[in-house]
Amino acid sequence: MNKGKFYITTPIYYPSANFHIGHCYTTIICDSIARYKRLDGYDTYFLTGSDEHGEKIEKKANEAGVTPKEYVDKIVDNSKDLWNALKITYDRFIRTTDEDHVKIVQHIFKKLYDQGDIYKGEYKGLYCTPCESFWTETQLVDGKCPDCGRDVHEVSEEAYFLKLSNYQDRLEKYLEEHPDFIQPESRKNEMINNFIKPGLEDLCVSRTSFKWGIPVTFDEKHVVYVWIDALSNYITALGYSTENDELFKKYWPADVHVVGKEIVRFHTIIWPIMLMALDLPLPKKVFGHGWLIIDGGKISKSLGNYKDPREYIASYGVDAVRYYSLREIPFGNDGNFSEELLVSRINSDLANIWGNLVSRTIGMANKYFDGNITNKKVNEDLDKEFISQINKLKSKCDENIDNLQISKVLEEIFDVLRLSNKYIDETTPWILAKDNSKKDRLETVLYNLLEAIRVTNILLRPFMPESTEKVVSYLNTNNNEFNDTLFKEDTKYKVAKEVTPLFERIK
Length: 507
Ligand code: ME8
What we know:
Structural class: alpha/beta
Distance between the termini: 45 Å
CATH topology of the domain at 339-494: Isoleucyl-tRNA Synthetase, Domain 1
CATH superfamily of the domain at 339-494: Isoleucyl-tRNA Synthetase, Domain 1
Strand order of the largest sheet: 3-2-1-11-12-7
Bound molecules: ligand ME8
CATH architecture of the domain at 339-494: Orthogonal Bundle
Radius of gyration: 26 Å
CATH class of the domain at 339-494: Mainly Alpha
Strand content: 5-15%
Largest sheet: 6 strands, parallel
Shape: elongated
Number of helices: 18
Helix content: 40-55%
């Protein structure tokens, strides 16, 4: 069943240092949504990558005594290995040093120049090198960079500018007519009131003071400066403006760009204006999520306040890291990241609720029926409500996925798992087992529980690919696809004899 196309992207991250749990957070979210849509029958394309140019990377490479390309190659290899460890199923990892990207960015820059959207001028500004950001006097905090608190310095150079001001009215009109474009709502208001309404200033889009960037073809002293290079990735990856543009035709516009809140501004002002200037449709949605915070501050490459995420995977398993990232933080808000909270989620949800349900149910199926369970249909009143909750689950998950409320999806699924444990307590199978006349009732109870495990397991697959595969092998049935998410009357179970706990409790 093909339900249409779905195109989702992460930001492309700066490979100035190895990626940290903050980058994992965005990427795990996008991967889970991509997996969900794929399993649900959408022709899905999931893009991630690295944003490799700029003065900061040039400097870091110099310090390390290697070329910028050698410097980023190493970090990109390391990140691909990290994405592998996290079971990230991207369709392409785009690098802004990829030859096809470079050529298309040059084409875009020239086109915008030829049609008068880019012009040559002089740039004067206050620049923070570690953050690669220009600031105005009023944005500084105590005279320092408002993001990292370090010194800024004044720079003045010849530069090309993108005429954002030309598109102010069109952008405002577009945002009015597309109230869902910027999500969540609070970020939309911030963009409109703080950045757009006060008036858009033209944007510096080239630099002459460093070399590590895409050369401007008609003025070789200049390299393309950050946002035109970076934002274009979402269309260059699909072959925009080339002979090989089938992916572009099929997948553009993106269904959602998922980004951290600090770059919503670029994705909802500069990017739409670039697309308007190129006469291309705009992405359907930009979602700005909150930050993972460690000890009260944002986890950050330039502050270096983090562990390699692979250490968490090695200690707790990939699914626990994925689950925690997805569950702990209501999407859109900031949230704390700590190993303590991670462990408490493993114990309370994964081991106690899910793992326990699976081991108990399979254990009883083996103990009382040698693992063979069919539906004997000896139902009681309380089964009705239980089965109806199972049947409502898929549509609840769909709705939350479409609103990017991933923690709510998991909450809904875990509510059904919790309800299943309660169903065991209420039906007391161990007491039924003592009475031979209740044998069919007992088998019905176990059947209902296995169906609950089967359906929740299908819906958990996008989020926890490793453990759900285990459960599939324990249940040993074929009905494991997204169109099997309703309670079935006639599944024949022959469950595994031996099961290892899905998650060990951690002390
Ligand atoms: O901004 N919590 O790259 P970047 C949550 N190259 N998410 C976090 C995070 C944290 N503590 N830290 C980072 C860039 N992220 C540009 C993007 S896109 C065309 C160009 C995630 O390496 C979050 O998604 O600084 C954030 O937006 C992104 O990493 C920033 O990555």
